[in-house]
Each structure stands twice: as C-alpha cells, then as structure tokens.
Amino acid sequence: MDLDIVELSRLQFAMTAMFHFLFVPLTLGLSILVAIMETVYVMTDRPIWRQMTKFWGMLFGINFVLGVATGLTMEFQFGMNWSYFSHYVGDVFGAPLAIEGLMAFFLEATFVGLFFFGWDKLSKTAHCAVAWLVAAGSNFSALWILIANGWMQHPVGARFNPDTMRMEITSFYEVLTNSVAQAKFVHTVSAGYVCASVFVLGVSAWYLLRGRHIELAKRSMTVAASFGLAASLSVVVLGDESGYDAGLNQKMKMAAIEAMWETEPAPASFTLFGIPDQEERETKYAIRIPWVMGLIGTRSLTEQIPGIDNLVDQAHQKIRSGIVAYDALMKIQADRENVPQTVRDTFRTHEDDLGHALLLLRYTDDPRMATEAQITQAANDTVPQVFPIFWGFRIMVGLGFSFILLMAFFFWRSSFCNQSYPRWALWIAVIWIPTPWIAAEMGWIVAEYGRQPWTVDGVLPTALSVSHLTIQDVALTLAGFVTFYSLLFIVEMGLMLKYIRKGPTEDVEETEDWTRRHEARMRGTGTIATPAE
Fold first, then answer.
1. Where, by residue number, does the polypeptide cross the bilayer (predicted)?
2. Can you tell me the mean pLDDT for 279-291?
3. What is d(CA 457, CA 470) in angstroms, rounded to the nearest whole number?
4. By C-alpha distance, which of 416, 489, 410, 403 is closest to 29?
5. What is the DSSP string of 89-134?
6. What is the pLDDT of residue 3?
7. What is the spatial distance between Cα 74 and Cα 69, in angstroms, rounded to a whole number?
8. What SS3 state is found at 289?
9. Which of 7, 120, 469, 505 is 20 to 30 A from 261 in CA distance terms?
10. Cis omega (within 30 of 0) on the bond before 453?
11. Is the CB of residue 253 less than 8 Å from the CB of residue 246?
12. How far apart are CA 210 and CA 414, in angstroms?
C-alpha cells in the first residue's frame, strides 16, 4: 500500500472541502436573512426593505455561484481519487447525494433564477415565496449531504454482502434518521446562520462607521443581531447534542477531543487548556474543570468516558475478531456456490469487526498472517492525531461563546438603546467578520480528522479507499485544484468587496423619497424633533 498516494489524496480532498466550506455557511445563512427581509417588505411595503433584500441578495448570489463551482468538483473526486470507496459503499453513500442533486440543488438553482430576474415579473407575495424556496433548497441541499457524511461517521441501515463485496442498504429510513447525521445537520446550518449574521452585522457596522447607508445599516444590524442571537445560542445547544452523540457512537473521537489517554472515574473532567503529547500519551500543563466532560459526553454523573488506551485495547480485540471474519470471507469468495453454512454463520457472527482486520492490509497482504507486532501497530492506528482535534474543538467552542456575547450586545443596543452603537463595538463587529469561518473550519477538522483512520467509521479504512493512481497524477491534480480554487477565492473576495464598497444601487431614489415623506409625517405628529427644536 503506497501511503504517499493516500496522504496526497486526503490532502486534495481536505483542501477542496475546506475551500468549498468557505462559501457554504454564508449561503445557508444569507438565504434565510434575505427571505426574512423580503417578508418584512411584503408586510410593510416599505421600499427600504426591498432595497435591503436586493443588496444582501446580490452578495448571496455571488457567494452561491462560487459555492456551486467549488462543490461540483468535490463529487467528482469520489470517482477520481476514491474509486474503491465508491465501489465499496457507493450503493449507500450515493443515494443521498443523488437525492441532493435531484431534489435540493435543482430546486435551489431554479428559484435562484426567479429570485434575481423575477422582481418585475412576479407579484410581491410570489417573489417572497421564491425567496423562501431558495432558502429551503439551500438547507435541503445541506441536509442530504450531511446525511451522506453522517453515515460515514456512524454507518447504520446497511450491511456488508460477502458475495458482492459491497455495502448494501438494509433500511433507508435508518440512514435518513441517523442520529449523527441529524445532529450534524442542525449544528451545521445553525453555524451557517451565525456566519451570515456576523457578516451582515460587520458590514452594517462598517457602513455606520463610514456614515453611509445609515437606514439600511441600522435595519440590517437589527435583523442580524436578532437572528444571530437565536442562531448562536442554538449552535451551542446543538453542539452539545453532537458531543453527546459522539460519546455514544464515536468514542475514539470523543477521547481525542478531550486528549483523555486513560479512563477517568465518572464524571470525567474537561481540560480547559493543555498540550497533548501523543508519543508520551499525556497532556502537559493541563488545566481541568471537574465533571464537565462527563456531563457533555454522557449527560450523567455515573457513566465513564473510555480513554484512548482503553479504546486501543478494545481495538486489539476487534482486530482479532475481524481476522476470523476475513478468513470466512475469503472462503466464501473462493467457492460462493458450495460454501458451508457454518462458514457464513461464522462470518455473520464477526462481520461487524471486519473493518478492523482490513487495517492490517497496510502491513501485510493477508491479515490472517499478521504478526502480534502488526496487530499492535494496527490497533494504535485507530488513534487519530490528537493535537489538532483537541485545539480545533477549543477554538471552535471559544468562538461560539464569543458570538453569543457579540449578538447579545448588539441585540440589546438595537432593541433598548434606540439603535445607538459605540464606535468601539462597531469596530469589533467589523474585525469579527472572519471568525465564523475559522470556527466552521475548526469544526470540520474535528469532525473529519477525528474519524481517521476510517473513511467509513469501523467499516472501511482510509488507506484502502483510494484509487490506483501514481503520485504524479495526484500531485498534478492537487496543484491544479489549488490554483483553480485560489483564483475563485480571489474572484469571490474581489466581487464581494466591490459590491460592499459600492453599497445598494437599486431603488435608491424610491427609498430616499419614502424616507423623506416618512420623516415629514413624523415631524407633523411631533414624534421626532425638527432641526429648530
């Protein structure tokens, strides 16, 4: 097994996935915010809300187009770089992706066109419905992709067929209702809502600092702060659900998040700070908070969270059981028609551990011939790199709580202080614009890096999933993707900054006329002071 191919293929997919995820959160969140703004326009008939819808909708459109361009290339990689993965689990993994394309992406793409070109063709109510259908399509798309990804994290509703050598669906309902997939979906879309809220808040703050587009900025900031506060609170709550689910179904990932080398007495403590040392199997300079990790991982004070060393010992046992399954599988493959029923029964008894035996293929062509040293090596391979997972989780969580504080402050100023904001707070809002993307990328590092060494957790090792390519082939495509994606990122940033600097350009006169008439009416009723007063 040529591990250089594995690492290059992993690097390529990681790079394309993380580039793509620069666009996804903003698309998810802006689609909802734009739909909310248009709903207010339909309800109030105030031109300023139509202007807001068009302005933020333009930024949504730029982001959406580039997100589609980066997302399409990811799916092609399953055939290019991960062909054995596609062969082995394609019957299960391909179904949600196909539904995403047919149901969600086509819905989203169709109504995006109506949204941008239907302003003068559709009634206000119909156009508002289109905006909500665009938002629904974006979120449906995320749902099906995360169902596919959730199955890789926690493979349910499928079974390995020893005759076809493939995973096959046994219950699509179980795939659909997978607890990991559902927890990931609500957590991910909530993170997207936070991302868009911080973006709208920061851009609006910049306008206020520059004294431009005041009315649009204040209203946008109010919407962003209200929506963002709810979203940031939900991210934390739903993140706790993801942590609990990992404690149930991905115990090694949970142990790596905490850098818990040995099983602690319940309830386990949470390490607020530390430097994980994987070679020494210890966390140096650890500062721990009692009980917290036990509550996150088990929601009890009596259940233990197994440590990494304990899980490695369990992996030893699963590898030995998997070797029995592998031996039975080879007998079935040798003579499928005449294989004794006892052999099939033996395979079914040990089939859940077959994936652990496949870990040995890194070190030997036949797992049945593996030495004790190779079994120990394979068991140790079940431990992911702890340092990036440990700190990725803490950066994500720390930023998550900062969003609650940011949104709560601006919600308070918007709701109870007549939309007046100190300059220092406006500058913080501007500076904080990139942080939701940092938190989102850290979340994906924890989710995906924490699954290693598995492509499908406990079923298919990453080292077996790659295509038979040369190092030159993968290196060339990697360089091509880096160049292409970097250009797209430059285009995205250039267009976004151009239109943000430019500000709203549509319905300007109509909005200004309405504002003047509205202010005149307010002065006439004595609601606001005249300049002489």
1. 20-43, 55-73, 93-117, 129-152, 185-209, 221-239, 389-412, 424-447, 474-495
2. 93
3. 26
4. 403
5. HHHHHHHHHHHIIIIIIHHHHHHHHHHHH-TTTS-HHHHHHHHHHH
6. 52
7. 10
8. strand
9. 7
10. yes
11. yes
12. 19
State the residue range of the domain holding 382. 192-469
Q: Is the pLDDT of residue 533 over 50?
A: no
Structure-token pair, residue 378: 């394979």
**In the structure encoding, which two tokens stand for residue 417, read together?**
């202080």
202 is a domain residue: yes
CB atoms near residue 82 (< 10 Å)? 20
* 167 domain-assigned: no
Provide the number of structural domains found in the chain: 1
Give the distance from CA 160 to its chain's centroid: 28
Confirm whether 479 is domain-assigned: no
pLDDT at position 393 is: 95
Rounded CA Rg of the chain = 27
Report the C-alpha gap between 259 and 272 in whole angstroms. 11
454's enclosing H/E stretch is: strand 454-456
What's 449's DSSP letter? I
Length of the chain: 533
229 in a domain, yes or no?
yes
Q: Is 39 exposed, middle or buried (0-12, 13-18, 19+ CB in 10 A)?
A: middle
Q: Which of 101-110, 196-205, 285-294, 329-338 is predicted with the least confidence, judged by mean pLDDT?
A: 101-110
Q: Is pTM, for the whole model, over 0.90? A: yes
- Beta bridge partners, 529, equal none
How many angstroms separate the Cα of 195 from the Cα of each of 234, 344, 381, 434, 485? 13, 51, 35, 9, 21
Q: Is the dihedral of CA 312, 242, 392, 89 positive or negative?
A: positive
CB 107 within 8 A of CB 133: yes
